[in-house]
């Protein structure tokens, strides 16, 4: 797979609590140059990025991040503000406490409410697989599908582990035909990136894909 094809699946990401405008600008410049699928950035930077770059890059942001236990009303307000500021894609974190309590109807209801807020924009649902049993992952595949979300996403990148191929293969068995997959965390090199895409992931969340490409180009000389 050509590097540019792989990068077209990448949500080029910078979500560290201490990231500066210079960090965000560098991310966006790389995204514009290499035509990544989006930049995934903190909500507080959306308006500035939109004002600076316009339609040159696709803006993704996070809601209820990274722990997921904000109340639904707060998450809905986050979504509205993000879309108003210029985001086109929302990566929400489910309430993992609700998952652990077995309250999947509540989880599904929250996803549905946030999908209503996003409308024709993209909603990705982060289920944070590192904290879940296989049964919980399967139940969340069904909740994401039933609620009409666009993607199921493995991880925040802030948990105890990131995406695994095992989880992606499990998703493939249990999500509906209209749900796509996003792997995040655990993508350590171009081989990992290619492997997740070939396994069926439409998006990869990583801060390192452009660096992988530059290193490969340097090694070829």
Q: Helix-strand pattern, N to C? A: HEHEHEHEHHEHEHEHEH
Output the strand order for the largest sheet. 1-2-3-4-5-6-7-8
CATH C-level class: Alpha Beta
Given helix and strand content, the structural type is alpha/beta
The count of DSSP E runs of length 2 or more, i.e. the number of strands, is 8
CATH architecture grouping = Alpha-Beta Barrel
Assembly of the depicted chains: single chain
**Helical segment tally?**
10
Rough outline: globular
CATH topology: TIM Barrel
* Helix percentage range: 40-55%
Task: Tell me about this structure.
The protein has ten helices and eight strands. It has 221 residues and is of the alpha/beta class. The chain has an eight-stranded parallel barrel, surrounded by six helices. Strand 1, helix 2 (21-34) and strand 2 (38-41) form a beta-alpha-beta unit. Helix 4 (72-85) packs parallel to helix 6 (104-118), helix 6 (104-118) packs parallel to helix 7 (134-147) and helix 7 packs across helix 8. The protein is globular.
What tags apply to this protein structure?
221 residues, alpha/beta, TIM Barrel, eight-stranded parallel barrel, 48% helix, 16% strand, globular
